[in-house]
Amino acid sequence: MPLATWLTWGLVASVATGIGLLLGSRMRLRRVPTLLLALLVAAASAASLVILKITYRGTPVSVTIDAPGANSHIDGCRVKLRGRVSPGDTRLALAVRSERDDGWWIQPYVVADSGNWMVEALLGTDTEGIDQNFIIVALASADPLIIDVLTGRHVWPRRDASNAQVLGCPPNYGSKVSALPPVAKSRPTAVRRVRR
Fold it and tell me: Do 67 and 48 sit in the same domain of this protein?
């Protein structure tokens, strides 16, 4: 699970423990029953979060990558992708993986405009990724960010791509994950980065 989920769950359990302690003192319980009540409330909140994570399916989303086409040759480390998503104001990020990488790079997100989106993806660095194939998948969630965090589906990097001005081909661009999160996904698009 993402670190943000663990931190949020810890905060929820701490607040629940505090509420249990407050209830115990308001009910004028002795120390041991008050601590037991606090632990019971904390355990109930943790169980509720686990149940939410297991059962929540998410808002249905449809997302596609329309350009570039499959097996396109990309000159340099940057490629502009565009596509469609429904609902139209969905949060969307690109997951990029080279043929030699062991994980996915989740790049900064954008919020679609009336169902259309366009974002620039980075394929490797100035020295890495040249003459390699890359797989790109669009990830989308129409749920509020707090729901993505509470359910462990939060992989969105901190910066919004529409505000990010990145020059060159920086290393470690985005967040690296070993598996794609359980959000809506486009069909994978394969492109080849060629030497510039």
Answer: no
